[in-house]
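Lab channel / #folding
Pinned by the channel admin:
"Please post every new chain as: sequence first, then the structure tokens as a reply. Keep commentary short and put observations after the output so the thread stays searchable."

First post following the new format, from NK:
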Amino acid sequence: MEAVASCEEYAASWAYQLVINHLRRVHGKTFEIVPVPRGIPMQHRYGDYWARDPVSKLVLPSELKSEKKHTGNLAIEVWSDEPNFVPGWLNHYADHVWLIYAFNDRHVAYCCSMGALRKWANSNPKHMTGMTHIPRRRIEQFAERTPHCSQRNVTVIRLVPVAVFLDEVDGAIELIKDEDVL
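Reply from TO:
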């Protein structure tokens, strides 16, 4: 057996099956994971893989984000390259693309549609206690980080607590791998 090369590849080895099982329970259909047709514009709009019903050809585009360790936060990318005004993945996927945010150490995935996440992120803030300024959008209330990486672009993320994500984003769910099932 070949060793898994990356955090995302390991997450793909269990998270997609978790999503397929969830879709089977919800829709009563069997889905398969297929790659999105080649091309950066397609991937930037519709994610890397589709969950597809082989009979009806119904597809659910999905984008997998993964982390090795559960931190209690989702790192939502608002800028891919801030100085050059390149939006992050929060803003370039189609509304119906399903975000699958997986944490490998706990085998847990948090999911929602990108449209629901974007609607929440751009909504008016409700909780203003302890704020030193008035944010214009909900996403601005969360800690901003610029990861220190050896890359040309300046990526900006917001750390959104999982509890807030599950409580406030419409349709957000938590899927936990059952070791006996998968």
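NK: The mean pLDDT is 85.
TO: also worth noting, The longest strand covers residues 59-67.
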